[in-house]
Amino acid sequence: MSYQTASQTGITDANGQFHYYPGETISLQVGNLLIAEGVPAQEWVTPLEFIPEIRTQLEVPSVDDEGLSTHTITEQQLITRIPLTNLTRFLIALNWTDNLRENEGIEIRDRVIQQLNAALPNLTSPIDFTVSEAEFNATGNQPSPANQLLAAICFYPEGDELCEQPPTEEEINNAPERPEDEDDWDPNVDYKQDLSARRQRILEAVRSMDEVDAEDARLYLTRELNAISTTIGNRFYLDNHIARHPDSDTSIKQVKIRRIRGGLDLANLEAITTRPQDVVLHSFSWQTATVEYYVSGPTDGESEIVTSFLPEDTYRWVRKSLRVVITD
User: What kind and span of H or E run contains 202?
Assistant: First the structure.
């Protein structure tokens, strides 16, 4: 995709990366087709940030079964929105291969962009991602603008037969019938049957939006969102993964959240203990990124202290757990 901020312009690289200065917004295009504008430029920009009303709702966390805040439930609720699924399906449909492989991003090649730019002025109306899925998928005598665009793009190498215009019905009807005796076939003649088969191959090679359904879009978005959450989560760790304390030591203990290579700034922090009869939560503070607790159960008792915290400059909550074991 091509991108532009107040200070930068360019093409995203193979990893989808772009350059920006903090505080800028970014516009994104596929060729001459505007996909999103006014998007806050930040480390991670996904299709969920492309649509303003969805972007705003990302900031409102959901609560999971343990009573802790999480962004993942919010994301899963939002990726069902029609404008987002239409947009994501369209981008997937522009992928060079007709199957989006596991752990691979969307690859929109220059050849596709050149054909897209040539076709844009001929659309009957602009592409509208907010229409219903049925309208976005429309084919037949009045194909949707998205399908008009896809029909004008050949996803095969230049010069491939499938990139040619299909023979017309008139050309097929005017062509001679293939002789019954194979020995009488002329290799330099396009027979009716040859032209009909060629027309069928070319028409079947044309992509349309109904080949990429809403579930494909949700699976792709879920995969990408989970990968981002994992990357962010791996930047943080607790002092310990397991803490062991004798049952006689009921003093207040502390566990601290830390960040690999860098200072830690949190916007929020929550914590629970899964077995409060064995391990009691005393306090927690996002300002100091610490959780305090003490043991109150018998020998061999144990609990998990589960923390959910929100780093600055992201809507994504990170979860880390400490296993506390009571010894004799």
Answer: helix 192-205
Q: How far apart are CA 136 and CA 108, in angstroms?
A: 20
What gap in Å lies between CA 146 and CA 144, rounded to an integer?
5
Distance separating the N- and C-terminal Cα atoms of the chain: 61
Tokens representing 232? Answer: 């962010």
Letter for the amino acid at 317? Answer: W
Residue closest to 86 by CA, chosen among 224, 209, 221 = 209
CA–CA dist 41, 125 (Å, integer): 30
The whole-number pLDDT of residue 105 equals: 87
Question: Does residue 272 contact residue 306 with C-beta atoms inside 8 Å?
Answer: yes
> Average pLDDT for consecutive 10-residue bins of the chain (328 residues)?
96 92 96 97 96 96 97 97 97 90 86 96 97 95 96 93 92 91 88 92 93 94 96 95 96 96 92 98 97 97 98 96 97
Stated pTM of the model: 0.89
pLDDT at position 231: 96
Q: Is there a contact between 244 and 327 (Cβ–Cβ < 8 Å)?
A: yes
- For residue 152 the two structure tokens come to 């004008």
- Phi, psi for 269 (deg, rounded to 5): -150, 135
In the prediction, which pLDDT does 308 show?
98
Per-residue model confidence (pLDDT) at position 262: 80
Give 186: exposed, middle or buried? Use CB within 10 Å, 0-12, 13-18, 19+.
Answer: exposed
Q: Is 56 left (phi over 0), alpha (psi -120 to 50) or beta?
A: alpha
Q: Across the chain, where does the E strand assignment appear?
A: 2-4, 9-11, 25-30, 33-40, 62-63, 69-70, 236-238, 242-246, 253-259, 266-273, 279-285, 290-295, 302-311, 318-327
From the number of C-beta atoms within 10 Å of its C-beta (0-12, 13-18, 19+), residue 72 rates as: middle
